[in-house]
Amino acid sequence: AAKDLGKNRFMVFENRMHEQLLTRLDQENRLREAVHRGELRLHLQPVFAVQEGRVVGAEALVRWQDPFRGLQQPGSFIPLAEETGMIIEIDRWILLEACRTLRHWQVESPWTAPAWVSVNLSAAHLDLPDLTDHVAYALATTGLSPQCLVLELTETVMMRDVAVTSARLQELRELGVRIAIDDFGTGYSSLGYLRDIPVDVLKLDRSFITGLVGNGRQQELVSAIVQLGHTLGLRVVAEGVEDADELNLLTVMGCKFVQGYHLGRPEPAHQLYERLTTPALHS
Ligand code: C2E
Ligand code: MG
Ligand code: MG
Ligand code: MG
């Protein structure tokens, strides 16, 4: 009897595994088709300059309009895309779309166009020898000037192979684009890479901003990081600013760039464009 029970359990387990595998394969296939079917969407989140009091940049964030499950946030498909290598194609699509959108905006409404758009790149790109060529291609076909493009890489990416990473990033910087360290402070990494790896922008992770109000120790820490960034000649952008109190604290600390729900949520690119080019919709 014990043996039968074990066998039944095994079959239940096997069926479940089978089901999960099919779901995964199904999702993988649909994600693979998503790019070609035009199901990816470019959302933009504004980056705000504290002193000027206006939007000066925008971050490109991918969404997937899945015909079965509706609009998907990156958390639900980026991990699979990274595992399968599909992330390369997705990031390339976003890169091109982001460059095209900002260029169009500059031509149509130069006074309201953000000065830059930033695009997230997954770690896998750094293993591709044609990364710089591809970025150059995106700039050339859209006509966007390299100074208007920022590439965001997470801190953990920087830590991989310092020699390879810094060589690749240096190539990109010679093209004229800027490099940002995304989610700064979450990678449990040594600060030593800031010495060896050429970067221009430091994006302070949202976890440092959450709970900032009323936590003196955290405020000292954030203030010190902002100083560190400025001392190294970097732009510092605080991520995840959700209310006026956080914004005020960051302003006092001398942080010049902020991004977060308080300043604007990610929204379809054309929606942000329309919002910023139509003064009547501001209030
Ligand atoms: P990230 O690059 O750090 O982007 C910031 C994330 O924080 C976005 O989530 C944004 O919606 C969210 N966020 C912004 N302000 C606030 C706030 O005030 N409060 C809170 N709670 N959240 C805020 P999203 O769009 O879900 O993207 C998550 C992550 O997925 C991104 O983190 C990035 O690592 C990745 N990702 C997004 N788009 C792409 C892409 O095109 N390519 C790659 N490789 N990764 C991407
Ligand atoms: Mg980012
Ligand atoms: Mg981030
Ligand atoms: Mg992130």
Q: What helical percentage do the residues reach?
A: 40-55%
Number of strands: 10
Low-confidence stretches: none
In the sheet with the most strands, the strands line up as 1-2-4-5-6-7-8-9
String of helices and strands? HEEEHHEHEHHEHEHHEHEEH
Number of helices: 11
- Strand percentage, roughly? 15-25%
What is the gyration radius calculated from CA atoms?
21 Å
Bound molecules: ligand C2E, magnesium ion
Using the alpha-carbon principal axes, give the shape: globular
Taking all residues together, what is the mean pLDDT?
92
Distance between the termini: 73 Å
> Class by helix and strand content?
alpha/beta
Query: Largest sheet at a glance?
Result: 8 strands, mixed, barrel
Domain EAL: 24-280
Protein name: Diguanylate cyclase (GGDEF)-like protein/PAS domain S-box-containing protein
Describe the structure concisely.
The chain is of the alpha/beta class and 283 residues long. The protein has helices at 2-36, 78-84, 87-108, 131-142, 155-158, 162-175, 193-196, 206-209, 216-231, 244-252, 269-277, and strands at 40-49, 54-66, 70-72, 116-120, 149-154, 178-184, 201-204, 235-238, 257-258, 267-268. The site of one magnesium ion has 4 residues, from loops.
Structure description:
The chain is α/β, with parallel strands linked by helices. It is 48% helix and 20% strand. It contains 11 helices and 10 strands. It has helices at residues 2-36, 78-84, 87-108, 131-142, 155-158, 162-175, 193-196, 206-209, 216-231, 244-252, 269-277; strands at residues 40-49, 54-66, 70-72, 116-120, 149-154, 178-184, 201-204, 235-238, 257-258, 267-268. It has an 8-stranded mixed β-barrel with strand order 1-2-4-5-6-7-8-9, surrounded by 4 helices. Strand 8 (235-238), helix 10 (244-252) and strand 9 (257-258) form a beta-alpha-beta unit. Helix 4 packs parallel to helix 6. It binds ligand C2E and magnesium ion (3 copies). One magnesium ion binds at residues 182-183. One magnesium ion is lined by residues 182-183.
